[in-house]
């Protein structure tokens, strides 16, 4: 594999880390200062599609920086260059459709921390790539931190070999409670009617089943979804045999709207969930968003989240198969 490419110059960003020999994220800038226009970028991507995709897998994250990317339409063109298939979002985040494949990342309050996750980790088909575009960089906070998932597994195995083995063997079960209508007062306020694209309960149940979820209707019109059994870790093709921490224990364990336990009902020890949270934070990588940044994340390799932010902040997203 060729590690350099004439269309781009490798840059640096504050906060990047070297993990297992690879710099995360790989920063790609215009090859020459006057080649920062959208047209040159699209041409550079078009000519180096395969190389670019290999870099996403090799470095887990690629940050395009210094190009003149202004708006959702530009971002959409960048994404469409690659020909990756779109994947419909299923999950708790209330989102707004902006343009073609482009959505807002989360309409929930900016003051809340969106906890680390692999996108759509509990759904049968999850995206391989999560791509974000910064239209309005936040004045303070609002970073999109990400975490090499295999490092979490490695460190959990070092500290809790037995608990990891037990959770792996038994599998995990999650519950999540959703309201009927969208509530943007919460970052997990997406209603089931929007999630499943129907207000008909029987139809929603059918669609949920297809995604691997069971439903329990609540007196207030909301629904409790039950998901399981699910794996603790996963190994994906082309990712060096790494065991990814492909679960959402910390995000869902012991929360007001959600729970996580082992699939046979046994509890996940408090200490295990708590230490895992610390380890994830310790392994996190983040940079400060700049206007026009486009970030490609390998969703099979990285967990990502969003730090609390001062307004205004506008980061758009798309997910691909
Ligand atoms: Fe996400």
TrEMBL record:
Q: Which organism is it from?
A: Nyssa sinensis
A molecular function (GO) held by this record is: oxidoreductase activity
- All copies of the TauD/TfdA-like domain together span 37-317
Coiled-coil segments on the chain, per record = none
Instruction: State the UniProt keywords alphabetically.
Output: Oxidoreductase
Official protein name in the record: TauD/TfdA-like domain-containing protein
InterPro entries linked: AlphaKG_dependent_hydroxylases, TauD-like_sf, TauD/TfdA-like
State the taxonomy lineage: Eukaryota, Viridiplantae, Streptophyta, Embryophyta, Tracheophyta
């Amino acid at each position: 594999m060729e590690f350099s490419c004439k269309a781009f110059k490798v840059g640096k960003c504050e906060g990047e880390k070297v993990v297992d020999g690879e710099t995360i994220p790989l920063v790609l800038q215009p090859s020459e200062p006057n080649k920062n226009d959208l047209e040159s970028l699209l041409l550079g991507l078009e000519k180096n599609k395969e190389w670019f995709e290999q870099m996403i897998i090799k470095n887990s994250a690629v940050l395009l920086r210094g190009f003149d990317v202004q708006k959702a339409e530009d971002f959409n063109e960048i994404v469409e260059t690659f020909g990756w298939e779109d994947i419909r979002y299923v999950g708790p985040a209330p989102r707004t459709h902006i343009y073609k494949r482009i959505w807002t990342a989360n309409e929930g309050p900016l003051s809340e921390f969106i906890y680390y996750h692999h996108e759509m980790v509990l759904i049968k088909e999850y995206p391989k790539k999560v791509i974000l575009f910064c239209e309005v960089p936040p004045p303070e906070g609002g970073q999109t931190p990400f975490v090499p998932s295999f490092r979490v597994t490695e460190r959990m195995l070092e500290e809790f070999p037995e608990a990891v083995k037990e959770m792996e063997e038994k599998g995990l079960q999650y519950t999540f409670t959703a309201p009927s209508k969208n509530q943007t007062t919460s970052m997990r306020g997406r209603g089931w009617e929007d999630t499943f694209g129907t207000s008909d309960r029987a139809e929603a149940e059918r669609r949920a089943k297809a995604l691997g979820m069971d439903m329990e209707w609540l007196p207030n019109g909301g629904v409790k979804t039950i998901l399981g059994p699910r794996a603790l870790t996963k190994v994906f093709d082309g990712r060096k045999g790494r065991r990814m921490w492909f679960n959402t224990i910390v995000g869902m364990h012991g929360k007001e709207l959600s729970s996580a336990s082992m699939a046979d009902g046994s509890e996940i020890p408090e200490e295990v969930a708590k230490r895992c949270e610390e380890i994830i934070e310790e392994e996190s990588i983040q940079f400060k968003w700049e206007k026009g940044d486009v970030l490609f994340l390998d969703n099979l390799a990285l967990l990502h989240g969003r730090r609390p932010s001062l307004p205004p902040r506008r980061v758009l997203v798309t997910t691909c198969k």
